[in-house]
Amino acid sequence: MYRQIVVHPDDRSLQQIVWRNDPSEPMKAYQLNTVTYGTASAPYLATRCLKQIGMDCKDDKISEIIIHDFYVDDLLTGGDSIQDALDIHNKVSSELATAGMNLRKWKSNEPRVILNNNNSSLELNIGSTEPCKTLGLSWQIESDELYFSTSEIVLNNFTKRGLLSVISQIFDPLGLPTPCIISMKILMQKLWLLKLTWDEQLPSEIIKLWLSIVENLSFLNNLRIPRSVICNQYINVDLHILVTHLKWLTEHVCMSVVLIIKIM
Question: Where does the chain cross the membrane (predicted)?
Answer without folding.
Answer: none
